[in-house]
Structure formats: structure tokens, C-alpha cells
Amino acid sequence: MKRFWFFDLDGTLADTDCDIRLAWKDALKDLGLECPDFEKRFVAGPPIEEMAKALFPAEYTDRMALDIRIGFGRHYDNDGFPNTREYPGVLDRVRALNAAGARPFIVTNKRYVGAKAIAAKFSWMDVFEGLYAGDMHKDDPAIGKLRKPELLARVMRELGAEPGDCVMVGDTCSDFEAARKNGIESVGVAWGYGTPGELAEADRMANIPEEI
User: Fold this and answer.
1) In the predicted model, is pLDDT for residue 2 greater than 80?
2) What residues form DSSP beta bridges with 189?
3) Is 86 buried (19+), middle (13-18) or exposed (0-12) by CB count in 10 A?
4) Helices 148-159 & 173-181, crossing angle to 10 degrees?
5) Sign of the alpha-carbon dihedral angle for 7, 12, 13, 17
6) Mean pLDDT, to the nearest integer, of 16-42?
7) Is the pLDDT of residue 87 over 80?
8) Per the confidence metrics, is the pTM higher than 0.85?
9) Which fold does the domain 4-16+84-211 belong to in CATH?
């Protein structure tokens, strides 16, 4: 069995879509930004900057992304995540991996503040050894914000984890890209937000948690 297991958060461990959408819509409303087909085009999981570019390709600026990030955080971090739900059976599988000697970690594009708050709400750190987010070093000029491939590479270096002993479990192309660029195996989960095309990029598929 592989020793190091890296789990995505949004769409893999929990259904966070509703609370994320509500915070996004509140942030856009505060900024006077309109996106008529928001419900159809929005996807939970990618970094805020990437999603802003997808929603506003012609109007996008770095300043817009920063304003959305600030507004999103203001709404999302203070709502208590009332609509966020753990996917049934996933944490049981993580516990089983842990009991068998594996070392599970959360590696997410989600903002570190929000990720920590959700992990605390569901007591995930009783099961996972650590939580890593792309913006957790944003105030360190030597590191800054990291995309998931770079974040995963950094985590693997810190842990002394060899590629052949690692697995990335996720639901969207950013997870599988991160795994591929770091030379590790990936498992796609069918219950998340990934499209069939995205899930086809995974090395293996889990249709139910027991298949992880």
C-alpha cells in the first residue's frame, strides 16, 4: 500500500458547493459585478483567480480577483458553513487507511483560513496528519501563493515522500494535474464536482469511498 495519501477538500471530502456559491454571489454583489450565467459556469474547487478569469474573461484584472478574494473571505469565513456536508463514508475510508499505516494529509486550493475552519468543524485533524493550502505561505515573499502542483511538490519535500509511495485523491483536473506533474498516482472520486472529461485524467476511479 502507498504510504502518503493526499486528499483534496472541496468535492472530495465534503460537499461545500452551496456555501461557496453563496459567498461568491455576495462578494460579486458587493462589487457590483454581474454574471448572468453564474450558476451554470461556476465550479467550486479552482483557485479564486482562475474562477474569476473564467467568469469574467474580458473584464478580468488582478485587482478584480483580489477584491473578490477579500469579499469572498469576509462572507465565507463568518457564515459557519451551514450547508456544507461531509460525503458519507469518505472519512471512514481515511480512518481505515490510517489504521493500516498510511499517512493521510489534506492538500487543497481552498483558502487556508476556510480550510482550517471546516476541518475544525468536522474534527478532521483527528484523522489527518496535516492540512496544506495554496495560500498558507502567501505572506512569505520567498514562497508566496502556490498552485496545487507546486504546493504538492513542497509538501512532498517537507515529508520526504518519494513519488512512488504517494497518491493524490481528488475530483477535478487540478488534482490530477498536480499528481501528474509530481509523478504520483491519482484517484478520481465520482461523487465530486469533476466532469467526465476531467475524471478521465485520473489514473484510477473510485465510484464509492470503499474503492479508494
Assistant:
1) yes
2) 206
3) middle
4) 50
5) positive
6) 95
7) yes
8) yes
9) Rossmann fold (3.40.50)
